Amino acid sequence: MKGYGSFCPVAKAAEILTERWTLLVLRELLLGSRHFNQLRRGIPQMSPTLLSKRLHTLEEAGLVARQSGDNGHWEYHPTQAAEEAWPIIDALGYWGHRWARSQLTPNELHAGRLMWNMRRSFDLKHVPCDFVLYIEIADARPKRWWFVVKKEEADLCWDDPGFKVDICLYASLLTLVQIFVDEMPLPRACELGKIEIDGPRHLVNSMCAWFPRSKYANEAPAAAGQVLAS
DNA sequence: TAATACCTAGTTTATCGCCA
DNA sequence: TGGCGATAAACTAGGTATTA
């Protein structure tokens, strides 16, 4: 039998939301991904077949509206039902950051997914000027990434955009992930020689203010096994 | 309880249509 | 012609039901 066979609203919600990958697809949609391949970039380990299937399921469940775009391709838009699921997904993010942290394993490190998440995590109000950031990750494939950062948005480029690079950053994938999730603050990574930065002083000095970090990074991790005081 | 068959979910690979 | 967006088909792995 598919689902939980119950009228319970929690069970009904879980039937829709807790299918494998579904919450991640919804998160991507709610964070602004609209096209099939944008969703794929945000969830690179999900197969395209399954992504297509989940989008249809979410459409049937009324969480996604499919509209034809300007170029003849489909656009996927979150509906009000999806928007109202955002507090649930956001709360899961905070909960995961506090309680589901564990040692990062190699298969959790994915350069494409990190870069895609970094793209929307620049603190643009602290960006001193428009600039091009080049990141080289020695142990990743591909290893070279570019961000074209402007006051209004940051664009991720898989290939050299052809603009003059203003600031260069060299690090391992693990270090970049640790900085992103705040396991290792940027200044500490510099002190330890885990990251090399090359660029003008005004950009380098302001990096702590604008460099992308997970929105959950400020949440203090909880001690595992902690028991509530009675 | 173990062996087997069957079912389902998910992955990989190939392919198609469209557009620049 | 190549890249992108999307889907289909074949295959695999894991779970479940059935039977001895």
Question: Can you give a write-up of this model?
Answer:
With 230 residues, the chain is of the alpha+beta class. It folds into two domains: 9-99, Arc Repressor Mutant, subunit A; 106-210, Nonspecific Lipid-transfer Protein, Chain A, CATH 3.30.1050. 38% of the residues lie in helices and 16% in strands. The chain is built from eleven helices and seven strands. The longest helix is centred in the middle third of the chain and has 14 residues, at 86-99. The model has no long low-confidence stretch (mean pLDDT 82). The structure holds a DNA duplex (20 and 20 nucleotides).
Assigned CATH architecture of the largest domain: 2-Layer Sandwich
Largest sheet, in brief, is: 5 strands, mixed
Backbone structural class: alpha+beta
| Count of alpha and pi helical runs | 11
Number of strands: 7
Give the CATH H-level superfamily of the largest domain.
SCP2 sterol-binding domain
How many distinct folded domains? 2
**Residue fraction in strands:** 15-25%
